[in-house]
Design a protein that fits this description.
The protein is about 40% helix and about 20% strand. It is α+β, with helices and mostly antiparallel strands. The protein has 2 domains: about 90 residues, no CATH class; about 240 residues, BirA Bifunctional Protein, domain 2. The mean pLDDT is about 90. It binds adenosine-5'-[phenylalaninyl-phosphate]. Adenosine-5'-[phenylalaninyl-phosphate] binds next to strand 6, strand 9, strand 10 and helix 10.
Length: about 350
């Protein structure tokens, strides 16, 4: 068989030299390497060899096959190249015609602002976390100190996923906020912790210019020893100042969320009127920005954190609303309805 392989190799290389068209090349390939080809027959015959011959001749056959395939490829390049040259010689080809400019997309304004938020918080030592959009009722509500019969459930009506109950954590829902990832992160990493969690959330509610059923939030969570709300004030003033590139003040107002105690709302000074009062801030000088507070003891417990040792704060703001503020977008629905005339402006 060794001689047979060598003889075929020689024959293929000889014939290859004489091939002058791609059609001829195809014929040669079929003759030797097709289903009923001469070389294919040799490869098929390998299985009938003795155990001592098989490895030696098998190796030789494979090496020869690779070598011949390379030679055929090289000949193909040569033939195709000369065919193209011939075509260029005989046909007029205007090389000065400008090419077609491919359409270029760009990063969506929501993603642009999200990237900026992530960059600033990363600079302040926060890690960036992610969590599932289809969430269990437990993580979305109960774990966050919102039991099934609690009136606070009405504040965030949601979409239920049919027939998809989690055996351990109850019904599955589209998450109504990014807060469930607080517990998931505590469970996974323990304390101390310094994270932000940007992500898409869903609510079953009527849409209007400032409310959508699908929007983006950014959650923040900081746990350590001896943490107070003054740290939150400092972090948010610094974050907003870096984001807007101008000094920003923040203030707290009391607010209610079952998963924080005390709970608060954070406003920042209106940059449009320099906090003097205008249409955007409804003449108050302040823009309502987010909910926040000290993480409730029950939530720390759900996350497996020793609340005697660690405490901290959490916040959640609407990224979509931030983009609207940034670019003076008058209707939230414009951001996700896919109208390129709108998106191309950013
Ligand atoms: C929450 O979702 C809380 N999880 C925030 C929080 C986190 C509080 C941690 C305390 C500690 P709220 O329902 O207010 O809170 O929503 C937060 C932000 O999401 C709002 O300030 C608003 O900017 C945005 N938002 C709420 N509903 C919509 C909506 N339908 N469309 C667009 N943005 C919305």
């Amino acid at each position: 068989m060794k001689q047979e392989i060598e003889k075929l190799e020689k024959a293929v290389l000889e014939e290859l030299k004489k091939v002058s068209s791609t059609g001829g090349l195809k014929e040669l390939e079929v003759k030797y390497f097709g289903r009923k080809g001469e070389f294919t027959a040799i490869l098929k015959g390998l299985k009938d060899l003795s155990a001592s011959e098989k490895p030696v001749l098998g190796k030789l056959a494979n090496i020869t096959k690779v070598k011949l395939e390379k030679a055929i490829e090289a000949q193909r390049h040569k033939l195709e190249g000369s065919a193209l040259e011939k075509e260029l010689d005989t046909e007029f080809f205007d090389t000065s015609i400008p090419g077609k400019t491919p359409q270029m997309g760009h990063i969506h304004p929501l993603s642009q602002v999200q990237e900026e938020v992530e960059r600033i918080f990363s600079q302040m030592g926060f890690a960036i976390m992610d969590g599932p959009e289809i969430e269990s009722e437990y993580y979305n509500f109960e774990g966050l100190n919102i039991p099934a019969d609690h009136p606070a459930r009405d504040m965030q009506d949601t979409f239920f996923i049919q027939d998809k109950d989690d055996p351990k954590h109850g019904h599955m829902v589209l998450r109504t906020h990014t807060s469930p990832v607080q517990i998931r992160t505590m469970e996974k990493y323990g304390a101390p912790l310094r994270v932000i969690i940007p992500g898409r959330v869903f609510r079953y509610e009527a849409t209007d210019a400032s409310h959508d059923t699908t929007f983006y939030q950014v959650e923040g969570l900081l746990l350590d020893k001896e943490i107070s709300l003054s740290h939150l004030k400092g972090v948010m003033a610094e974050f907003l100042t870096r984001l807007f590139g101008a000094p920003v003040k923040v203030r707290f107002r009391p607010g209610y969320f079952p998963f924080v105690e005390p709970g608060l709302e954070l406003d920042f000074s209106c940059l449009i009127c320099n906090a003097k009062g205008c249409k955007v801030c409804k003449n108050t000088g302040w823009i309502e920005f987010m909910g926040a507070g000290m993480v409730h003891e029950n939530v720390l417990k759900a996350g497996g954190i020793d609340s005697k040792k660690y405490q901290g704060w959490a916040f959640g703001f609407g990224l979509t609303r931030l983009v609207m503020m940034r670019h003076a977008v008058s209707d939230i629905r414009l951001l996700t309805n896919g109208d390129l005339r709108f998106i191309k402006q950013f």
